[in-house]
Amino acid sequence: MNPIPDHLAPNLNILFVGYNPSLRSGETGHHYANPRNRFWTILHRADITPRLFRADEDQDLLELGYGFTNIVARPTRTAAEISVAEYAEGRELLRAKVEKYRPKVVCFVGKGVYEAFSGKKQVEWGYQAEPIVEGVRAFVAPSSSGLVRMKLEEIVEIFKGIHEA
């Protein structure tokens, strides 16, 4: 199964970074395409998007200043299938993307994504004290996967914190 395309542009307002694409995303070529993934609903309810977008509209969010990538490009059923080597390679590729495109905020969609990138453990939700690269803020949000046991409204409230920037 092929990796899905990144949606990147210089100076984005927010670059959303996931673990890796789901199998459904790999099949469709769109980010957060699994019907059990709550990403699109979360963005809308957190007032990040003006309407409820669909996964097949992911490229349209570039017009709003939002981009998409993953720390690992290979689609899998769960993030547990990602190897240490894949995370190490993904960390370097992600840093290069952030340095090249310079988004204002990098939103890690899942604590584990940020932990894999930063090497830090037990991080808090929200903005992190240290930037990703100089001038780029890091925001840690819960994963939007349907496997996450947090209530939707709790996740939405955390995502609303991104408006602080």
Describe this structure in words.
- This protein has helices spanning 23-28, 39-45, 84-101, 111-118, 152-160, and strands at 14-18, 66-70, 105-109, 126-127, 137-141.
- The model has no long low-confidence stretch (mean pLDDT 93).
- The chain has 165 residues and is of the alpha/beta class.
- 29% of the residues lie in helices and 13% in strands.
- It has a 5-stranded mixed sheet.
How would you summarize this macromolecular structure in one to three sentences?
The chain is an alpha/beta fold and 165 residues long. It has helices spanning 23-28, 39-45, 84-101, 111-118, 152-160; strands at 14-18, 66-70, 105-109, 126-127, 137-141.
Describe the secondary-structure layout.
Layout: E1 14-18, H1 23-28, H2 39-45, E2 66-70, H3 84-101, E3 105-109, H4 111-118, E4 126-127, E5 137-141, H5 152-160
Parallel strand pairs: 1-2, 1-3, 3-5
Antiparallel strand pairs: 4-5
Task: Determine Rg (CA atoms, Å).
Answer: 14 Å
**Broad structural category:** alpha/beta
**Spatial ordering of strands, largest sheet:** 2-1-3-5-4
Unreliable residue stretches: none
Mean pLDDT: 93
Helix content: 25-40%
Shape: globular
Q: How many β-strands, per DSSP?
A: 5
Report how far the terminal alpha carbons are from each other: 37 Å
Order of helices and strands: EHHEHEHEEH
- Per DSSP, the total helix count is 5
Strand composition percent: 5-15%
The biggest beta sheet reads:
5 strands, mixed
